[in-house]
TrEMBL record:
CDD domains: PBP2_CrgA_like. Pfam families: HTH_1, LysR_substrate. It comes from Zhongshania antarctica. This is DNA-binding transcriptional LysR family regulator. One of its GO terms (molecular function) is DNA binding.
Amino acid sequence: MDKLKAMHHLCCIAEVGSFSAAAKLANVPVSTVSRSIQALESELGAALLKRSTRHVGLTEIGKIYLSESKDILAAIDRAEGRVGNYQNAPSGVLRISALPYYGECRLLPLLEGFQARYPQIVIDLELSNHTADLQRDGVDIAIRGGSEPDGRIIAHRLVDNTHRLCASKSYINKFGMPQTIAELSLHRALLYRSPAQVWHWHVESRGAWQRLDISTAQISNSIRVIRQALLTDQGLAMLPSWSIEEEIANGSVVWVPLPEIVSTTASHPAGSVYMLYQQPQYTVPKIKVAVDYFKEFLQ
């Protein structure tokens, strides 16, 4: 027995006073309404209706059951309405996990415009170098650097994250531009530390990657900190273009022309920055509009 349908049929009978009129109101055969009410009364062990040749009315217990049934059916209608609104209007909490400096540099400037467009979405933003598990950690969108992830999640490439050797123009004016790998021993390095390791600099020699002989000025897990040390002439750094594009454009930072250097071993390339999300979750309005918005403005 479909108890919800039986409740609906009972409401129809109470409204129109007969089985035939209730069947017409519910758009079902009279026999369906009759069987539905009989099954409901049988399960409850109580008569809900008083039947006569001219009229069908409610018993005392039938009136009580009718009142509760109306409340239940109204609650279901409200719940279904909320689901419908949720599917049509993006809303709810959107959890984003992003690389700290990329999040500060590229993502934060977009959030004001995003929330103006979608005011019912609440942004919950975590800036962290630790890799988030989208399903386990309840993260809707993650922005991470590295090689392309496996096929279990959608990975949309946002920008190249290859690290290149650079220096401030004033540093080069003070200490000179290194022209060879050997000349790097006269300089100091600003090194990045990931959650797994310090990214020492390497150079390929005789088919293998060798760690460079260069003094270390500073180590940090923050690109912001390394960038600031670079701009204050404390050493050379390996940074991705997106982190210093403005300084490269205005000439205050220059690339050091030693392209064979990498900031970790060749088996751990810097790769790209990706926006990650689960394919089934793309149907959720808040996630769909966010993914589309960030694709448009972060690409």
